[in-house]
Structures are given as structure tokens and as C-alpha cells.
Amino acid sequence: MKRYLFIVAALMAFFITLFFIVEALGVPLLSDPTPWMRHGGVLAASLGVGLLIADVVLPVPSSLVMVAHGALFGVVVGTLLSLLGSVGAASFGFAIGRRGGKVLERLVTPAERTRADNLLTRWGTLAIIVTRPVPLLAETVAIMAGASRMSWTNVVVASLVGSLPPALLYALTGAAVANFQSTALMFTVVLAVAGLFWLTGRLLESFLLAKNGALHESHPRHVSLRLRRRM
């Protein structure tokens, strides 16, 4: 798994480097896209959704875009636009990972690939749900999931579930008061929701493992083996 961890670290390093490059170049659209969206309408909606999808490969301030959606289009439409962009971003990242699967096979051993596939099959859906509101991790997890055996249906459903809380919270922020203080507060709430998802998944996983262990121990074959050992 060391090579997989190296690839994950390399992806995150790439995104961080790209962020600093864009900041150094001072690209206005990627630093603060709200001036291009302030007039609303179809153009602003399309630009907002497009920026959220491009967030997979470009350092887009997604929170500002989602807040702008809420401020310009209201809670319901703003949430739907942010949801569309976020799910589109997850699907785009997944597609990149799917296309890069053959390259990944050359970089890792078959045993590492099998182990990572099993891990992503087991945890991939929950990982996508939990990391959707988290910068860098969201893109990295989506790309790595695409390189696994996870299905398109799973990634779309998981991204929908994981993207809804931040999309709704940021839309509420934009519809109420679109300022830095409220945005920072809402981002904290979003992280708390993501943490709650993760904790729920861990508790559920522990429960299922305990249940499966009990069933495993109660299997007739294991009962017979225990009786033989006692004799």
C-alpha cells in the first residue's frame, strides 16, 4: 500500500502546488468569481456550476461559488445548482481515475491493487460522502475511487449524499448574509457534518464487524471445533 499512499500524497501535493501557482498569478476568476456572477441569470448559473466541476483540477473557491448561488438564486435553486456542480466534480474526478487506471496498474503491484480495490470497495462510498465538503481530499478520493472497481452508480449516489449538506448550508448562508463571517461559520458546520458522517460510518462498521464475528463464531463448524478442543 506504500505506493498507493505515495500516489495519494503526490495528487494532494499537485493540487496544493497548483493553488499556489494560481494565487501567484492572481487569476481573478479563480480568486473571487463573484464579480462575474453578480448579475445572475443563466450565465451566472452556468459559470457557477462549471467552476464547481473545474474544481477537480483548478483551485476554485467553491464555498464562495455556493454562497453566491444562494445569494443570487435563493435557497432551493442555489442548493440545486451547487449540488449539480459538486456531483459533476465528483463524476469528473471519478472519470479521470477511471481513465488513469491502466497507468496506475504500471505503478503498483497486483497485490497492492487488489488490496486497495478491496479497501475502496469497502470504504469508498463512505469516503466520498465524508470528503465532499473537504478541499483537496474531495478531489483526491474521487480520482482514486475511479481507479478502483467502484461503480458509477455508487459514486453518483455517494456524491449526492455528501454534497447535499454543504450545498444547502452555503445556499442558506448566501440567502441570508453573504459575508466572510457567516461563510466561515457555515464551513465549520459543514466540517462538523462531515465528521458526523465519518463517526456514524465507524460505529456502523464496528457494529457490523461485531455481528459478523458473532455469526462466524456461531457457525456449526466452529462450534464443533470448540467442542473437540474441550474434549
Task: Summarize this structure briefly.
This protein has 231 residues and is mainly α. It has helices at residues 2-25, 28-31, 34-37, 41-54, 62-99, 101-107, 110-131, 137-146, 152-176, 180-217, 220-230.
Question: How does this model look, in words?
Answer:
There is one protein chain. The chain has 231 residues and is mainly alpha-helical. Helix content is 85%, strand content 0%. It has helices at residues 2-25, 28-31, 34-37, 41-54, 62-99, 101-107, 110-131, 137-146, 152-176, 180-217, 220-230. The model is unreliable at 221-227 (pLDDT under 50).
Topology:
Blueprint (H helix, E strand, L loop, with lengths): L1 H24 L2 H4 L2 H4 L3 H14 L7 H38 L1 H7 L2 H22 L5 H10 L5 H25 L3 H38 L2 H11 L1
Largest sheet: none
Nearest-angstrom radius of gyration? 21 Å
Which overall shape is indicated by the principal axes computed on the Cα atoms?
Answer: globular
Domain unit count = 1
What is the average of the pLDDT values? Answer: 76
Class from helix and strand fractions: mainly alpha
State the share of residues found in helices, binned by percent.
Answer: over 70%
Along the chain, the helix and strand elements come as HHHHHHHHHHH
What percentage of amino acids are in beta strands?
Answer: under 5%
The total count of helices amounts to: 11
Low-confidence stretches: 221-227
- Number of E strands: 0
Terminal residue distance:
43 Å
